[in-house]
Amino acid sequence: MRYLTAGESHGPQLTTILEGVPAGLTLLAEHINTELARRQKGYGRGRRMQIEKDEVNILSGVRHGKTLGSPITLVVENRDWKHWTKIMAIEPVEEEEVKRKVSRPRPGHADLNGAIKYGHRDMRNVLERSSARETTVRVAAGAVAKRILAELGIQVVGHVLEIGGVRAQHLSYSSLEELQRVTEESPVRCFDQEAAVKMMEAIDEAKKNGDSIGGIVEVIVEGVPVGVGSYVHYDRKLDAKIAAAIVSINAFKGVEFGIGFEAARRPGSEVHDEIIWNDTEGFKRRTNRAGGFEGGMTTGMPIIVRGVMKPIPTLYKPLQSVDIDTKEPFAASIERSDSCAVPAASVVAEAVVAWEIASAIVDQFGQDRMDVIKENVENMRRYAREF
Ligand SMILES: Cc1cc2nc3c(=O)[nH]c(=O)nc-3n(C[C@H](O)[C@H](O)[C@H](O)COP(=O)(O)O)c2cc1C
Question: Where does NADP(+) bind (predicted)?
């Protein structure tokens, strides 16, 4: 499976075309809209999230609530477009009509490198596409992937572990359902209620200071059979694909699986997961420090992946930069931005991880038809149990 996205932040719409989604998958607009709404929530988001309620239009590839196997086109309109028809006009406009030209690059954003790379003197041409508004349709694509996984009994849950240095401490959930239920109710998508309060205080503080803060999100996937992905070639390693997907999210700068970077500090005997066996489940690991991967393949244990999001670059608090027209230094001051988007980013992380896993499963277990894929996955689960 693969997908492309297109669309500018203040253009008429965002579009994604998904290719290779198997036939026979139940897919309704509401499955996607639920995920779009989750992305728009979260303490610390700015005004745009309140103006625009994202809704998907499914324009191809689905008939009577089932996928056809043909490309699926998903469109999300930008409701704000009506205020941008001149600024973002497709047809040429007079030079003096171009308002909100951007000549002041923000440190930490794509503005300056993008302008130099593509030869743009108006950096709106860069920021309209480098903006995380694009993650809207990545979440839409992820919603389709989640539908595939749900039909195969695979659960994906994302949550927030850390914001602005405040770390969740009490993570004593007994199931992924509980983790999901609790974090869904939390304005910062955090399981630990005490930490959540402190995270919101940290966001308030950052906002008051005209600053922004980042954090760490975690995605857990349960129910993936053993052996998805492969050790035989670098571009078939599923952990590598997931790592790339996480770092491809705007503002994500690092990724780890299981105990992650902590593995550098421990001896091997405290890193590797001992292998055990019983006649009902077959082979298992006593622990899951590897986070569900060995040799680029799933171990059958839960996949645990974390991503680090840096603070949002658009700040009210001035950071020095240089105007590309006048070459004069200036202190950036900006009208509107979020102070923290980590909770929303955890929804994006879920989406991109779900896509990579669904894509690997479809590739490995049958490609064309959901019913065949389901049967093949079941066979693999049985085979692994009896191995
Ligand atoms: C959900 C989400 C929302 C974001 N919102 C903003 C924002 O409001 N303002 C901003 O400057 N950056 C925001 N970002 C981050 C920028 O898009 C990102 O830093 C920028 O594209 C530069 O790319 P890089 O940080 O990956 O190098 C957001 C990122 C995510 C994932």
Answer: 39, 45
Tens of pLDDT along 8-36?
999 999 999 999 999 999 999 999 999 99
**Residue type (1 letter), 309:** M
CA 359 to centroid of ligand 1, rounded, Å? 26
pLDDT at 171 over 60: yes
Ligand 1 test: best mutation among 250, 310, 336, most atoms within 8 Å of CB?
250
- 316: tokens are 């009210």
Dig out the tokens for 31 from the structure: 């499955």
Ligand 1 proximity of 341 Cβ (cutoff 6 Å) = yes
The pLDDT-based confidence of 47 (bands split at 50, 70, 90) is low
> At a CB cut-off of 8 Å and minimum separation 6, what does 322 contact?
105, 328, 329, 330
Binding residues for FMN: 129-131, 250-251, 295, 310-314, 336
Query: What's 2-386's CATH class?
Result: alpha beta
Q: How far apart are CA 376 and CA 370, in angstroms?
A: 10
- In angstroms, the CA 342 to CA 309 distance is 7
Could you write out the DSSP letters of every residue in 183-200?
HHHSTT--S-HHHHHHHH
- Over residues 98-126, mean pLDDT: 94
Is the distance from the beta carbon of residue 132 to the nearest atom of ligand 1 less than 6 Å?
A: yes
Query: Which one, of 132, 123, 86, lies nearest residue 104 by Cα?
Result: 123
Please give the pLDDT value at position 50.
Answer: 61
Cβ 109 under 6 angstroms from ligand 1: yes
Place of tokens 């996937």: 221
Distances (CA, A) of 161 to 17, 72, 125, 189, 352: 32, 34, 35, 9, 18
Phi (first) and psi of residue 353, to 5 degrees: -70, -45
303: Cβ contacts below 8 Å, ≥ 6 apart: 219, 220, 221, 222, 224, 242, 257, 291, 292, 293, 353, 357
Nearest to 194 by CA among 215, 167, 173: 167
Query: What is the 21 CA–ligand 1 centroid distance (Å)?
Result: 29
Annotated binding site for NADP(+): 39, 45
pLDDT at 211 over 80: yes
Measured between alpha carbons, how far apart are the two ends of the chain, in Å? 30
